[in-house]
């Protein structure tokens, strides 16, 4: 499907599109955002006017069937991902889906099966796979400087947000029909996905989850044990109701020769601590954080590269989250 100009259509106009993703479509050579849609017509019109997008649609389905659109970016909450993705696939167009890929692993499988039958590509916005920060982490691990990796510990503790206390107006991220779960599905997925990218998919998964804060229905406190290839054990814990003063975002990889520390959201300097050597690697993130991954999609469609985040890789992360949360 090589294209001189790859023309994107976008469904959804939420915060993620303002800076993280959508500006990239027009910054990348051979790429252009040509249409946007939202169920609220005023939002679509306003977004198109502010960002100089040629067309806007009051019905998101019209974006999919717009003849000028080559590929569709689904930037809505996960509750509508499967619906829009399947319609895009049946229209014979590749699709780029915000993470998590869908509400459940079952929905991911339905999308992937449809894509395989139609011969259509599915990409998912696990953009950390393309960032220089995590490429550096992977480079250090792959170099062997740590020696044999012995174990990995992941800790993500975040405070409740102000909107979590508004019982009559809860954010969509904690409404299961919209998100598939709570903040674990929305945020924890990034940590799991990048570990699978670096070390390989899980062999075994065990987990326990509960709701300690009582602010909303989904779980807010999670503990998991994962066995990765080469008998590598990962222990992970997440809390989304931790007091702000105890907030933490850290991954520690321990090897025979030392340890490596990095973060998932904070992008704190990568710390390599060997027996006779310590080094810090501060790495600045791009202005539009999804741009490197979107570039890989454009390159793959034009036959000159490969996108590292697909429907198949993303489904693995969703299955693990469902298993840990007790949904699978």
Task: Give structural attributes.
328 residues; alpha/beta; Rossmann fold; Dihydrodipicolinate Reductase, domain 2; 2 domains; eight-stranded mixed β-sheet; six-stranded parallel β-sheet; 11 helices; 14 strands
Overall description:
The chain is an alpha/beta fold. The protein folds into two domains: 6-128 and 290-309, Rossmann fold (3-Layer(aba) Sandwich), CATH 3.40.50.720; 132-285, Dihydrodipicolinate Reductase, domain 2. It has helices spanning 15-18, 23-27, 41-51, 60-64, 81-90, 105-118, 132-143, 176-179, 183-199, 291-301, 311-325; strands at 6-11, 31-37, 55-57, 71-74, 95-97, 122-124, 149-157, 204-210, 221-228, 232-239, 248-255, 258-262, 270-274, 277-281. The strands form two sheets. The protein has an eight-stranded mixed beta sheet, with helices on one face. The protein has a six-stranded parallel beta sheet with strand order 3-2-1-4-5-6, with helices on both faces. β2 (31-37), α3 (41-51) and β3 form a beta-alpha-beta unit. α5 (81-90) runs parallel beside α6 and α9 packs across α11 (311-325).
């Amino acid at each position: 499907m090589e294209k001189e100009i790859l023309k994107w259509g976008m469904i959804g106009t939420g915060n993620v599109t303002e800076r993280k993703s959508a500006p990239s479509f027009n910054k990348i050579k051979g790429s252009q955002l040509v249409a946007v849609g939202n169920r609220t017509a005023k939002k679509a019109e306003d977004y198109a006017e502010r960002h100089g997008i040629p067309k806007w649609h009051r019905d998101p389905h019209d974006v999919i069937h717009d003849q000028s659109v080559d590929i569709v970016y689904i930037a809505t909450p996960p509750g509508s991902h499967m619906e829009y993705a399947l319609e895009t696939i049946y229209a014979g167009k590749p699709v780029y889906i915000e993470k998590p890929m869908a509400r459940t692993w079952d929905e991911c499988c339905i999308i992937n099966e449809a894509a395989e039958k139609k011969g259509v590509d599915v990409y998912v916005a696990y953009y950390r796979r393309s960032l220089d920060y995590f490429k550096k982490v992977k480079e250090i691990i792959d170099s062997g400087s740590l020696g044999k990796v012995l174990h990995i510990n992941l800790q993500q503790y975040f405070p409740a947000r102000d909107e979590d206390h508004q019982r009559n107006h809860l954010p969509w991220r904690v409404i299961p029909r919209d998100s598939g779960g709570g903040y674990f599905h929305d945020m924890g997925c990034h940590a799991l996905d990048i570990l699978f990218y670096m070390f390989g998919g899980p062999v075994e998964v065990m987990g326990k989850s509960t709701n300690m804060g009582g602010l909303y229905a989904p779980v807010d406190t999670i503990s998991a044990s994962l066995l990765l290839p080469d008998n590598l054990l990962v222990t992970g814990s997440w809390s989304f109701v931790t007091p702000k003063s105890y907030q933490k975002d850290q991954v520690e990889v321990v090897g025979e020769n030392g340890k490596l520390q990095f973060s998932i959201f904070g992008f704190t300097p990568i710390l390599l601590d060997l027996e006779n050597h310590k080094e810090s690697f501060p790495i600045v993130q791009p202005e539009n954080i999804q741009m490197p991954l979107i570039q890989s999609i454009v390159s793959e469609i034009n036959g000159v590269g490969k996108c590292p985040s697909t429907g198949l890789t993303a489904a693995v992360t969703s299955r693990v989250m469902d298993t840990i949360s007790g949904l699978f």
